[in-house]
Amino acid sequence: MPDINPPDILVKILKRKREEVDALYAKKSLQSLKADLENILDSSQANTRGFVKSIENKILSGQSAVIAEIKKASPSKGLIRENFIPAEIARSYEQGGAACLSVLTDMDFFQGCDLYLQQARDACQLPVLRKDFVIDPYQIYEARLIGADAVLLIAACLTDTQLSDFSGLARQLDLEVLVEVHDEEELQRALKLPVRLMGINNRNLRTFETSLDTTISLLEMIPDDKIVVTESAIHHREDVILMHKHQVNAFLVGESFMRAEQPGEKLAELFFKA
Fold first, then answer.
1. Helix or strand (DSSP H, E) at 154
2. Catalytic position from the list 54, 74, 202, 232
3. What angle do the packed helices 263-271 and 237-245 form, to 10 degrees?
4. Which end of the chain is more exposed for a tag (fewer CB within 10 A), N or C?
5. Which helix (H) or strand (E) holds 70?
6. Is 184 noted as a catalytic residue in this protein?
7. Could you report the per-residue pLDDT of 251-268, keeping only the tens digit for each?
8. Residue whose C-alpha is closest to residue 142's, from 110, 175, 101
9. Which H/E stretch holds residue 69?
10. Residue 186 designated active-site
11. How far apart are CA 101 and CA 125, in angstroms?
12. pLDDT digits (tens, 9 = 90+) for 136-191
């Protein structure tokens, strides 16, 4: 088992996340949560939207597959978007050509919440990733219950056993998985998982600096059956062109869009206009 030694900011986030999850268990048992989920799965809300399929369809059509992020704030930048209406942002992204959405649900560090995900998903037809720090099975059941179509698993936060168990549980619940890595060691661990989406975060979690060289340096180690999703550091058309030159066609972008008056128009400008 690898020595999981997250950077300082992650240590702080994960400590708080453990407190949050413990509070969730105290409020409602996992058994009760599962019962609530069973009621949902027996209803018309049972079907998830094809997160991976939506990305594949964009790529097969020769277009960029953009996972457009709905994010109000971040630990490094503070408040990013003051006029924050998730439903409007979701519709704007859909009109701009996004393949999927990513919605931050972490409260303390990103000013997110579960309701934002529900509002965004109800406002459009796009599949939605729950973007949070998953450290416990409870959160995966919860993600399915609130309407997520996919979950994020961050290798820097999880042991090999947790990565395997959590990705397996997600599949059982018809949730797809985006596994996120930051370096070669994490990538080698993530490649053991039967997961299509391999996210490479270009942000250094110790310094919070970003560089697309992170994605480029890891590409040759990733087999062709994986879809590489480059995350962070996409700000200009030249960044997109650089990734395309390296056969990277899937992107997770948030801040560049969130700072624009019309996020969907910024998405279209960055990815779909010559």
1. strand 150-154
2. 232
3. 50
4. C
5. strand 65-70
6. no
7. 999 999 999 999 999 999
8. 175
9. strand 65-70
10. no
11. 10
12. 999 999 999 999 999 999 999 999 999 999 999 999 999 999 999 999 999 999 99
